[in-house]
Design brief:
about 450 residues, about 30% helix, Nucleotidyltransferase, domain 5, 2 domains, 7-stranded mixed beta sheet
């Protein structure tokens, strides 16, 4: 079989064609460029849909694709009226929902119930819906269905409406993870009844719609899978083959640390810590920050850093104060900057960024009480500086770099072949040496001296 992963990220959208053994056979990508409005900055649904159809039609061997698996970031959901959008999909970095933040915070369930920090902008689905319902009551009143991000695109491909627990239970304020039920807010606002019945992430919704088949050349035997939240799909590849405790560090625009076996009582909403819900409905202690954005704020477009570049940065004493994205992460509200001599080359900028992100992840692991092995997924699994720094900060604890180039590929293959999950082999990984960056402990101590009090 071959499987196509439709990966809807905040920064980029990708189609990745995978062989049954996980090899990438082809890939296509485009930026996820937000539209300015009216009525507010929003996702370019028509443009993305045209691109998806054209890209599917361009894939080699498309007639042999057996499944399409949508995966998506967790800060998006579609408000649908019948067969059309009632309102555009909100750009979650838009500040509009802050207009009703005090009212929302007073109405929302407490952290002890929903394990959701009260974050600004549209970083919580509950905040999005709350603001949209009050700012656009007529349009919101027409809503017949709410579709989580991945299931929205599954519907656009298959014509079948569904919902699934990982986005509903992902920093949304819509679910009580420990109780496995809707939040009081979701019920009181009438949102819970607008979600289609919950399906399993691995459920096949049906074949692509006739117009999609005609436009792409896909086989009628292809099936569109329900899909799930992207970080949870990365986590699933390990959850299906490992017993807790272990920790998955999913990287991209967001760096999501999911600590299987960690105690939920350690979660601190002031540090952007929360409980995710995995595809089986189980809560998972989680910490997060916008690691990809933080990296880019330091490195710009520089890449290709080596351990030698990192060693020069460390010897020079250059450090990064958190945080450049002040709305998320363990240092919410702090202003980022560079302390010490600036990097001398683009490669040194990339090395400084890798060191900085590893230091923040190390703090997140400590806050969670996370247990090894620490498995790095996504772009950071190919960054030698980040990997060496994280391993050096965690001596005696296994740091593993996933060899899944997509970050979500192994989990998506598992969803596509759920009836064959008993044959699932552990994902390909490599161990990272902990001695690649001598002097790291002193560098960490100097960095921690820059951190905000507490």
């Amino acid at each position: 079989m071959t499987v196509c992963v439709l990966d809807i990220g905040k920064t980029n959208i990708k189609l990745v064609l995978l062989a049954a053994d996980g090899r990438t056979l082809a890939s296509r990508s485009r930026p996820n460029v937000m539209q300015p409005g009216p009525p507010y900055p929003h996702v370019d649904v028509p443009g993305i849909e045209r691109w998806i159809v054209a890209s599917l039609a361009d894939l080699p061997g498309r007639e042999t694709i057996t499944a399409i698996v949508p995966v998506a970031h967790g800060c998006g959901a579609a408000l649908v009226a019948g067969e059309a959008l009632a309102l555009p999909l909100l750009d979650y970095e838009y500040a509009g929902p802050d207009e009703t933040s005090a009212e929302y915070d007073a109405a929302a369930d407490g952290f002890a119930q929903d394990f959701t920090p009260k974050l600004p902008l549209g970083l919580l689905l509950g905040r999005q819906f709350f603001w949209q319902a009050r700012r656009f009551p007529g349009d919101f009143g027409r809503v017949t269905h709410i579709l989580p991000n991945a299931q929205f695109w599954a519907w656009r491909l298959s014509g079948v409406k569904s919902s699934e627990i990982t986005t509903i239970g992902c920093h949304a304020g819509l679910w009580r993870p420990a109780e496995r039920r809707w939040s009081a807010l979701a019920q009181a606002e009438g949102w819970a009844e607008l979600f289609p019945p919950l399906r399993n992430a691995w459920d096949a919704l049906g074949p692509p719609k006739p117009d999609i088949l005609a436009a792409t050349g896909l086989s009628p035997a292809c099936r569109v899978i329900c899909g799930a939240h992207d970080s949870n799909v990365s986590y699933l590849a390990h959850r299906a083959t490992r017993q807790p405790p272990f920790t998955v560090i999913s990287t991209g625009t967001w760096t999501i640390v999911m600590a299987a076996g960690a105690d939920l009582s350690r979660l601190d909403p002031g540090r952007d810590m929360l409980a995710n819900v995995d595809v089986f409905g189980d809560p998972v202690a989680t910490a997060r920050f916008m690691g990809g954005r933080e990296f880019a704020a330091v490195a710009g477009d520089a890449t290709g850093a080596t351990l030698a570049d990192a060693a020069r940065v460390m010897a020079r004493g250059t450090l990064v104060r958190p945080a450049f994205v002040a709305e998320s992460g363990p240092f919410t509200g702090s202003a980022g900057g560079i302390a010490g001599p600036p990097p001398a080359t683009p490669a040194e900028r990339a090395a400084l960024a890798g060191l900085y992100v590893a230091l923040v992840v190390d703090v997140m692991l400590g806050l969670l009480g996370a247990h090894p092995p620490f498995v790095v997924e996504g772009p950071s699994a190919a960054d030698p500086v980040f990997l060496a720094a994280l391993a050096g900060l965690r001596p005696g604890q296994a740091v593993l770099a996933s060899q899944d180039g997509t970050g979500t590929g192994a989990g998506a293959l598992l969803l596509a072949g759920w009836d064959r999950r008993g044959d699932r082999r552990p994902a390909a990984e490599r161990a990272v040496a902990s001695d690649g960056l001598p002097g790291l402990a002193g560098y960490r101590d100097r960095w921690r001296a820059l951190l905000p009090a507490g």
